[in-house]
Amino acid sequence: MGLFDRFRRNVQAEVAPRRVGTNVSLNVAAGIPNIVDDTDKFQLTSNFTNEFDLFDNMVKFDPELNGAVRSVALTANNYTIDYRAAKNQRIRDAIQMLVERVDFDDILINAMRNLMVYGNDVNKMVGRAGIGITEVTSLPVRQITIVDHRGADGTAFAANEYNYIATNDHYILREGQYTQEVFPKAEVLHFRIDYRSNWFTDTKSRVTYGVWGASRFTSLKQAIRAKYNSMNNRIALEDALTKQFITIDKSAIEHITDPDEQAERLGKIMDEVISLFEGLRGDQMPILPSYVTLHHVDLNNTIPDNTGFLDTVGSNIAAVLHVPRVAAGQEKGSTFAATYNANTWANTAIRRLQHVVLQGVHELFSTHLNLLGIDHKMQDLPRFGFEPVAEESLLDSMRRATMGYQAGILTLNDALEILKMPVVREGRGRREPKNQPNGPNPTSNSQPGASDMAEG
After folding, report:
1. Tell me, what's the pLDDT at 332?
2. CA distances from 38 to 32, 56, 96, 285 (A)
């Protein structure tokens, strides 16, 4: 390198360290807007296509709702089919072939789940004559509209409270789109609950009555919105408040007399502390000089406690969905019938949902047999049912069977059926209860050799 090259060399100016204000937080966690963005839509967004979109988000983002729906939906997996109760072998073979051909377990669980969330579960039955049903396709409830004879060809029409839709003659998938499909009622398996007196306005602003099932989530819309409004406000408030601050003792600059040098010394200490914290991992603790102290702020008394409000919302969810709360230690008497506890109401509500699914299963079996050309009645089908939600222990079953038989209420075969034991030919009669003695009760001194006279 020559002498002149040294003078031509570009010397980079030294960049002063960037100061960070004490009121600026470090980016060490996910941003609060990213955390609360989804749940903010509950109260900020009101332009849902229909209520089913809102219900989807409620289940998606709320863990209590999701857990309640999932626990109840899984009860549909505990079912039994007694093929021996069918009228003949043709019916037994046809139904068994249908159950093995389609995803029967998933159909039941999905039906129970959608009944909880939407109050409806819509499926397209695929099959043809001579072969029967080959597939049961679940249709998205949010994209379905139900019309009467006026919409048979898929054309749009108006329906208000005075000429409302009262029959479910046709089901339209993606109405008004170029992929629109129209299905007649005979090809659709529609599970619905509490539909007989339910007013519902579909996505085309048509009023229906007694067509769509009623969702239990309708009464939870305001509670869920208030819940996440409270939670998001608390999160934002906690993020805005100061949780930690640093103080520098005067011993750090007491040996310096020049005010400018004191300010420069304090700035350098702050820069070193900030660099130290930015270089820490999550499992490391900072080692600070003796004149630097890190203070932690207790926010317990600064931010109001909202756990009581959240517990109230959780109780509302359990009350509306009738979810058993005994395991969580929250069993309470019902608000409208104090003689029934929450667990009893929960079992009753689940049995009601299971009964709706049972009716749909019978409709599915019957449609399959009709396509195969097998004459039948509903009582000719195999016996389908769900296992009890509240299981009875073997000891309780034995006590119930024994007490009923000894009291002459149950026959021997009735008692054996309770215990799931084979019946016997001589077990059709009832036992005659033994007559109790009608004579006077014995006195305390009636034992042999007892005397009414006290011994001297």
Report:
1. 44
2. 11, 12, 45, 34
Residue 283 lies in a domain: yes
Give the pLDDT of residue 27: 45
The Cα–Cα gap between 85 and 244 comes to 72
Q: Where among 236, 266, 296 does a domain terminate? A: 296
Q: What is the pLDDT of residues 232-258, one digit of tens each?
A: 666 666 666 666 778 888 888 888 888
Contacts of 123 (CB under 8 A, 6+ apart): 107, 111, 136, 137, 138, 139, 188, 189, 190, 191
pLDDT tens-digit profile of 154-193? 888 999 999 999 999 999 999 988 899 999 999 999 999 9
Domain that holds residue 413: 394-433
Does pLDDT of 106 surpass 70? yes
- Indicate whether 148 belongs to any domain: no
* Lowest-pLDDT choice from 279-283, 403-407, 410-414: 279-283
Does residue 245 sit in helix, strand or coil?
A: strand
Give domain status of residue 363, yes or no.
no
Dihedral of the alpha carbons of 386, 387, 389, 391, in degrees to the nearest 10:
170
Q: Give pLDDT, residue 237.
A: 64
Write the burial class of residue 443 (CB in 10 Å: 0-12 exposed, 13-18 middle, 19+ buried).
exposed
Residue 40 lies in a domain: no
Concatenating the DSSP letter of every residue in 170-208 gives EEEESTTSTT-EEEEGGGEEEEESS-TT-EEE-TTS-EE
Give the distance from CA 215 to its chain's centroid.
13
User: The tokens of 285 are what?
Assistant: 């603790």
**Total of domains in the chain:** 2
Per-residue confidence (pLDDT) for residue 401, from 0 to 100: 86
Nearest to 300 by CA among 243, 351, 227, 217: 243
Q: How far separated are the first and last CA of the chain, in Å rounded?
A: 141
Neighbours of 136 (CB within 10 A): 20
